[in-house]
Design a protein that fits this description.
By secondary structure, this protein is of the alpha+beta class. A five-stranded antiparallel β-sheet has the order 4-3-2-15-14, covered by helices on one side. α9 (323-345) packs parallel to α15 (450-465). The chain contains 15 helices and 30 strands. The protein has three domains: 14-50 and 198-333, 3-Layer(aba) Sandwich (Rossmann fold), CATH 3.40.50; 57-196, Copper amine oxidase-like, N-terminal domain (Copper Amine Oxidase, Chain A, domain 1, 2-Layer Sandwich), CATH 3.30.457.10; 347-465, 3-Layer(aba) Sandwich (Rossmann fold). The protein starts with 13 loop residues before the first helix and ends with a helix.
Amino acid sequence: MVRAGSWSRNRAVVGLAAGGRFARSTGIVSLLLAVLMVFMLAVVPSTQCLASSAVSMRRVSIEVRVAQPAFSVTVGSKRSSATFPTAFVPVQLASGLAFPLRAVIEALGGTVRFEKAQNVAYFGIGPVAAAYDIGRKTLIDGVYKSSSRSDLFRVVGKVGTVYVTGTILKTLIAQAGGTVQIAAKEGVTTVTCQIPSTMTDALGAQHSTFPAKAGKMRLVTLAPNLAENCFALGQGGNIIATSEYTDYPEAARKIPTVGAFSNPSLERLLVLSPDLILVTDGTPLAVVDRLKKMGRAVYADDPRTLLEIVSAIRNLSVVLGVPDCGYEVSLGMYRAIERVAAAGAKLPRRPSVYIELWNSPLMSAGKGTFVSDIVRVAGGTNIGDDTDTAWPTLSEEFVISHNPDVIVVASGLGAADVSGRTSFSTVKAVQLGQVYDMVGDYIFRPSPRIIQGLELIADYVQRAAQH
């Protein structure tokens, strides 16, 4: 539950779920009071995550000839000429006509970025994104599926380049909600792409997938996790203001704040004149509405599972105009989740887990939260799911009766705060030494660091499964 007029559907501990955390000393008390005040108020349904618009499309076509370096590009009604790199021209493969990746992607309005340390080329066109692993000669598509495609890497002398076929473009663009038509006539192959040019955020607002200030927007982040996500996307330098409790990475601490994410200073936001204000669950609708009336663009997300967090970060990268960076981050997160889930599925049993968010009263996470989803993916069962609320207040009797195999203490008070309780002396996790301290940010903030929380909890669950 959240404050009246907020747009969350089912999150009670807004200070935590939106990227806040329990700090030490007076910070614990002040944030806890805010959390409890929010906890008592009502829920307002919200839409989910960012989705491509089915209406607004960007139409781009290219015309190429086999073995010819010159090609043409038409964006809307504007036609121009371009040239493929020397020695790298379109070639006919068994799977269809192929052309140099960088030249075509950039002609379509996208970006290509080669990460030398990984030996991987990441590319994106608005909501369309994929990667080619040169070392493994593998294409990774828009839904993170890999396929061996050694034919897409061609070498001339000491220089190599990645190619792409019209069929591959068709698949990638279709995965993003677009279409591709391929036609051949008199030696000329025309590839016509319809790519979604807008996306709809969690509050129904439309955002361009081809922003004019791609990678250069002046940003305000009204939740700590949003600042983290911007830094992960290489956009931290574009943040001109943040909200309270924004403390990661270290560079984020140096950015001025505009107050609490639930009650920012609208006057300061007006003076700062950002290009885009990022909000998440917990920002009151009244604040969002006032920002929009002030003429400020607002982008909202609201992920509730691990995979939705992955999608939220990738979608944010599209709105910011850096889809290649978003794909790189999301691919790493997706693969980590996949690895953990595969290991969890092989466990001989699913140990029960109690996540303690606070000790007085006992607070935990239930169904419909990404905290609970972490436990599920890790191979455990969350005892908080046996309640009828997303962020329940529990009795000691409830915890004792569920006799959890693992206890994760994310309150900031340390594992000893739980293992030292006389009332918990009979609980299995206490008896077997399966009580663990957890940095709350690892499971409360929907950011790339949530993977660290997932991997830690997976380790705890795997240990418990052996008993």
